[in-house]
Amino acid sequence: MAGSVALANAYSGGAVAWVVPTYRNSRPLWRFVEQHAATAGRLYRSELSVSFQRGGYLTIYTADNDVSMRGESFDLVIIDEAAQIKEETWTDVIMPTLADRDGRAMLISTPKGRNWFWREFIAADGKQSAAFTAPTSANPLPNIQRAFELARQRVSDRTYRQEWLAQFVEDGAGVFRTVRACATATKREPYAGQFVIGVDWGRTDDATVFVCVDADTKQMVDYDRMTQTDYALQRTRLRAMWDRWGHPPIIAELNSMGGPIVEQLQRDGMYVIGFNTTNASKGQIIDALALAFEQKTIGIIPDDVLLGELEAYESERLPSGLVRYSAPAGLHDDTVMALALAWHYAARPPIGFAEM
């Protein structure tokens, strides 16, 4: 819709700016422009701009280089993923470009907490400004509805409400909910069953953590956390847990020093599966763990460090639109990651153990 409005204004002689958080965010719009304006206007691909015979034009700008907009004057500015853009870019750079021409602005975005975009949304009075919301649930296409229902089952409540229902979720809300209500498990003596061990490595500032989860009962049954411990002793303690629980799969991070340690453990004959942690893969396992807490399908040991790290865990939306999960500045997430890795495989159907 916004793309059609932008091209119609530019075709009629208007000066139009389309602002995106980063250059990468510009690609879908530019493909739209090339598809619909190639025959009617003149394209300048290097500048991401198209001009028309009546003097109008549409140019794409990036908010991470907002100096290029200063001094310009526009009839219409469309801010794409507005919630990802700094408030200063809106108030100090974009708003002045609308003054000379008495221009209009259209802000479109997925919510990102209750930031400046939310304040603009709730300030809309239907006279000088208007606000609309379009959740995914309102899209009648069958494939969208299927994806919507799947998301309801597979993502955390916070992600579901923000990304799929287009709701403004209050800032500061933790990633994991009902943590203490799920802290009902106890450290157990070994027994027969199917288990998974999740491993997050550390040595100096960070801790190394091993978490063992019963894949049948979905209960945490064992836990080992150590700091200032050399890698040889870490491997020895991991082997002790592995032996104790009948040689279950070990899911261990490959990043940083994890790769060589995993290779050594595999050479020693241990059943270790490496996990490459990226922003995307981390998001998947954290979302799955958050959903387990919301549905109360997981039981954890009420360890103070584990409870504290889970309750402090945060999410942050990046300019690219992706969500980054991490511990607050100065805190750690070692127990969270070990638990998330164990849960990632423990939550799979039993056949998953045969596939690994």
Walk me through what this model shows.
The chain has 356 residues and is of the alpha/beta class. The protein has 3 domains: 2-132, P-loop containing nucleotide triphosphate hydrolases (Rossmann fold, 3-Layer(aba) Sandwich); 136-173, no CATH class; 180-355, Nucleotidyltransferase, domain 5, CATH 3.30.420. The protein has helices at 2-11, 27-37, 87-97, 116-123, 142-154, 157-164, 231-244, 258-267, 279-295, 304-312, 334-346, 351-355; strands at residues 15-20, 42-44, 49-51, 57-62, 76-80, 104-108, 195-200, 208-214, 219-226, 250-253, 272-275, 314-317, 323-326.
Order of helices and strands: HEHEEEEHEHHHEEEHEHEHHEEHH
Strand order of the biggest β-sheet: 2-3-4-1-5-6
Total domains: 3
Cα(first) to Cα(last) distance is: 46 Å
The stretches of 5 or more residues where confidence is low (pLDDT under 50) are: 351-356
Helix-strand makeup class: alpha/beta
Can you tell me the CATH topology of the largest domain? Nucleotidyltransferase, domain 5
How confident is the prediction overall: mean pLDDT? 87
Question: What's the SSE blueprint?
Answer:
Elements lengths: L1 H10 L3 E6 L6 H11 L4 E3 L4 E3 L5 E6 L13 E5 L6 H11 L6 E5 L7 H8 L18 H13 L2 H8 L30 E6 L7 E7 L4 E8 L4 H14 L5 E4 L4 H10 L4 E4 L3 H17 L8 H9 L1 E4 L5 E4 L7 H13 L4 H5 L1
Helix pairs in contact: 9-11
Features:
Nucleotidyltransferase, domain 5, disordered C terminus, 5-stranded mixed β-sheet, alpha/beta, 6-stranded mixed β-sheet, single chain, 356 residues, 12 helices
Offer a concise description of the structure.
The chain is an alpha/beta fold. It has helices at 2-11, 27-37, 87-97, 116-123, 142-154, 157-164, 231-244, 258-267, 279-295, 304-312, 334-346, 351-355, and strands at residues 15-20, 42-44, 49-51, 57-62, 76-80, 104-108, 195-200, 208-214, 219-226, 250-253, 272-275, 314-317, 323-326. It has 3 domains: 2-132, P-loop containing nucleotide triphosphate hydrolases (Rossmann fold, 3-Layer(aba) Sandwich); 136-173, no CATH class; 180-355, Nucleotidyltransferase, domain 5.
